[in-house]
Design brief:
This protein has one domain. It is 74% helix and 0% strand. It has eleven helices and no strands. The longest helix is centred in the last third of the chain and has 26 residues.
Length: 253
């Protein structure tokens, strides 16, 4: 429970208060990132379902997206913008890392952020017109599997930036296999529960494969350009995987 609360505090804007804090907890709490993702997805699903009863699908989709962005404080969106600004052009590793630290947003980051928000709003609008179970499943799975993709990148790469100046230094350390196993277990429990609820297993497998492909591609890209992951790179991984899972759920198959 303590590690879950640390993960909730780190990934969301919820006012979680801890009486004490150990830096090692921040590294260990990554095992619960998918669980936090489920909670964020559940909030988005609740807003989507409620708003769809009052307004057109597009309005409901934007409100649901706004709810999840507000809940996370745009944490992952910031990583996507910074990563595309840094790696969208052809620059050296040191220059790319310097761009990531710059609080200003450039053209690559603005385009990536705008297209990401537009695509996710469009996909949620599609879900708003479909049976509730599918919409709930898509939001829960997209947020959980996307955070699992980020954990996978962390576990498979060393830290690519300056660990001494990392904003969250414990996350620059290697992720223990136990934490990866627990994160996978959370995803497994979610997918098993959705299957039991009536969501087609083929759709869930496609969603899982989509998140895995994004994680693999981000692994290769970050390794080639930076020699490892950064916090912004993990945020970009989450955003791209979230879109990939939503695409898997809305594809006409």
């Amino acid at each position: 429970m303590r590690l879950f609360l640390v993960a909730l505090q780190f990934l969301t804007r919820l006012p979680v208060r801890l009486h004490r804090f150990e830096p090692a907890w921040l590294n260990d709490c990554v095992r619960h990132f998918p669980l936090v993702g489920m909670m964020v997805g559940a909030v988005g699903a609740a807003v989507l379902a409620g708003a769809a009863q009052l307004w057109p699908a597009w309005v409901a989709a934007v409100l649901a997206l706004a709810a999840t962005v507000a809940l996370t404080g745009g944490f992952h969106e910031d990583g996507l913008a910074d990563t595309l600004d840094a790696l969208g052009g052809v620059v050296s590793r040191d220059k790319a890392l310097a761009i990531m630290k710059d609080s200003r947003i450039g053209s690559y980051g603005a385009l990536a952020l705008g297209l990401s928000l537009l695509l996710r709003a469009a996909l949620l609008a599609v879900l708003a017109t479909r049976p509730l179970l599918g919409a709930v499943a898509a939001l829960l799975a997209s947020h959980a599997l996307a955070r699992m993709a980020a954990v996978g990148v962390m576990a498979s790469l060393p830290y690519g930036g300056d660990a001494d100046h990392a904003k969250a230094k414990p996350l620059a350390l290697a992720v223990a296999p136990r934490s990866v196993a627990i994160a996978l277990a959370w995803c497994g429990l979610l997918l098993a529960g959705l299957t039991a609820a009536g969501v087609p297993a083929s759709r869930l497998l496609l969603a899982g494969a989509a998140a895995a492909v994004v994680a693999a591609l981000m692994h290769q890209w970050l390794k080639r350009r930076l020699g490892g992951y950064t916090g912004d790179g993990l945020g970009a991984t989450e955003q791209l995987a979230e879109m990939a899972v939503l695409l898997a759920f809305t594809a006409s198959l």
